[in-house]
Amino acid sequence: MIEVKNVTKKYGSTLAVDNISFDVKDGEVVGFLGPNGAGKSTTMNMITGFIEPTQGQIIINGNDISRKPRKAKKEIGYMPENVPLYYELTVREFVNYMAELKLIKRKEKKQEVEKVIKEVGLEEVQNKLIRNLSRGYKQRVSMAGALVGNPDVIILDEPTVGLDPKQITEIRTLIKNLGKNHTVILSSHILSEVSQICERVIIINKGKIVAIDTPENLERTTKERNGISVVVEDPKDNMKHLKEKIKEIDTVEFMKDNEDGTKQYLITTSSDIDLRKKLFDVLPKQEIVIFELKKTETTLEDAFIKLIDSTKGSETSNKMEEKKIKSKEKEQEKAKREENKQEKKEAKKKEHKENKENKKKEEKK
Amino acid sequence: MWAIFKKELKTYFLSPIGYIAIGIFMLVYSIFFYLTTIMYGSLDMGNLYYATARYGLLLIIPLLTMRMFAEERKNGTEQLLLTSPRSVTSIVLGKFFAAVMVIVITLLLSIIYSVIVSFFGNLNITTIILTMIGFLLVAMAAISIGMLASSITENQIISAIITIVVLVAPWFLVDISSVFSSIDLMDKFMRFPYGVVSVADVVSLLSIAVMCILITIVLIKRRKAVK
Fold first, then answer.
1. At what angle do helices B58-65 and B17-32 cross, to 10 degrees?
2. Which residue from B3, B77, B224 is facing A100, i.e. has the nearest CB?
3. First to last CA, chain A
4. In B, residues 2-21, which contact A (CB 8 Å cutoff)?
5. What is chain B's Cα-based Rg?
6. In chain B, which residues have their Cβ closer than 8 Å to the Cβ of A48?
7. What tens digit of pLDDT does each residue of A213-242 get?
8. What are the angstrom distances between the C-alpha of A104 and each of A126, A284, B104?
9. Do B11 and A74 touch (CB under 8 A)?
């Protein structure tokens, strides 16, 4: 059980993590999603006790990480983002050292190290220097370092970055298996990965939590409408009048012209009725030939982009407003200046005239 | 502490640094053995250690200490250490004593020379043992200074340069003001070769070591909050 309570982290004046709170229950696999620089790694570093939060509390299995670091850290296995390893050690020596660092009893150590090396598939390279291993193996060594000692909580910062597809699937199944009897937090920016492995997703952007939910729910909540994408051959351009023929249709949006003369449209409806049947009926009558007809599905990807955009959008609109206000102020200033100039000119003109008149008067005298 | 001590000591001898350090020590020690003991037919082993400390230690200590924390920080392995249940104190002490151990090994090797000389005359064994203890104390103080330098930067070369400057600068600064002799480690080792152990010397060497270790611990802990 991990409890993160109102945690804030400031780097100087920049706010990296802004008052976030969430819980991770025992045996849960939680994904941490966010664009680069969103505060994922900072949050993970705080949970593992590598850095201290500026404000707030992090409790691991009932132990506050800043007050009882020894007890709390014992429950955590951490695989940092950049896969830091001691290159001068062999795989076995490294895992052994990590086991010692984690206060594993001497009797159990050898067995534990062997078990972990087997678990992540490092048996073949266990006596090689880490320096000479490929990226995928290094990643696994780092993973082994996190798993040794069988900690309750496993935290993996971007575990599949830089791996080939086969290794990725291997690591994913490994994580899935870990989820059976460990609490796992992993960060990633690969969305399909998160939706496959994780039971819950925390989306974070600019240091703030944007959403916490299951991947399915996130997809559902961000899906507002039923969309159907159709590809048709429509020489008479009858698609325009489709809305009159089927009343349930909200919009018919032209998407693109294909090279083979077909056109792609997106038809949306707010109701829950499946329009596909009706379209099949109606379109041929309008001399429209259907090439393709399919329901569009929102993915976690869409949900993610939508959520991130929504936070960005509000900010940019704020900025726009600020700009507007500023430009208005500038205009006002300009106007004032011009007024002043004109006044001055007029005053000068007056003076000039007066002078001339005075001269004329003097001359007359 | 034990786990870190073991690993650090192993790393010294997995990389050539440990061997280079011992090699330099033995080279300098042998040169002075020739220059003092052999050329003058002297049995004064104490001054041999003094000369070695003055010209050899300076080269060895930065070698041993420069990578201590700087390398861990640069490679990110610091993350592994600081997220482990080990306390910062035990990490710092583990690294410190690993470096001290390398010096102890060199000192043990240097005993061979005394054994050789002992065949040609009566050695003052107590003086030699006292000088060796003094040598170790100086080395401990110097290591703690180097360790502190290593903990404030992630560049090993900068860390080595800081260590050398702090160790050498007092030799010249003494000419400006005698105040600087209080931070000159060699000044506190001067009396050991004559068999004179002053409490002041021992206490000041030990306190420099303890102080630098404490500052290192505080700095690393503080960086956790600031970083």
1. 170
2. B3
3. 106
4. 3-4, 6-7, 10-11, 14-15
5. 18
6. 83
7. 888 887 776 665 567 888 888 887 777 777
8. 20, 73, 29
9. no
User: Stretch B162-174: mean pLDDT, rounded?
Assistant: 90
Q: In this model, does residue A191 exceed pLDDT 80?
A: no
Q: What are the helix (H) ranges across chain B?
A: 2-14, 17-32, 39-40, 45-52, 58-65, 70-75, 78-82, 88-118, 125-151, 156-173, 185-189, 199-226
- Across the interface, whether the CB atoms of A103 and B224 are under 8 A apart is answered no
Instruction: Choose the mutation target among A42, A50, A65 for the interface with B, i.e. most B CBs under 10 Å.
Output: A50
Compute the nearest-CA separation of A48 from chain B (Å): 6
Query: How far is residue A82's CA from residue A142's CA, in Å, rounded to a whole number?
Result: 10
For residue B10, the chain A residues in CB contact (below 8 A) are 93
Domains belonging to chain A, first-starting first, are 2-220 (3.40.50.300), 224-296 (3.30.70.3190)
Q: How close does chain A come to B84, measured CA to CA in Å?
A: 6
Check B80 against A98: CB less than 8 A apart.
Answer: yes
Read off the pLDDT of residues A140-158 as tens digits, 9 standing for 90 and up.
899 999 999 889 999 999 8
Residues of A in contact with B11 (CB under 8 A): 86, 88-89
**Neighbouring-strand partners of residue A23:** A3
Closest CA to B98 of B203, B181, B199, B18: B18
Give dist(CA A313, CA A307) in Å, integer: 10
**What's the total number of domains in chain B?**
1
| Least CB–CB distance from B76: residue in A82, A97, A100 | A82
Q: Could you list the residue range(s) of the whole structural domain that residue B81 is in? A: 2-226
Mind listing the pLDDT tens digit for each residue in A35-85? 888 888 899 999 999 999 999 999 999 899 888 888 999 999 999 988 899
Whether A134 shows a pLDDT value over 60: the answer reads yes
In 10 A of CB B130, how many CB atoms?
20
Mean pLDDT of A330-343: 69
Crossing angle of helices B125-151 and B199-226, rounded to 10°: 20
pLDDT band for position A254 (cuts 50, 70, 90): confident
pLDDT of residue B26: 93
**Which residues in chain B have their CB less than 8 angstroms from residue A52's CB?**
224-225
pLDDT in tens, B8-44: 999 999 989 999 999 999 999 999 999 888 888 888 8
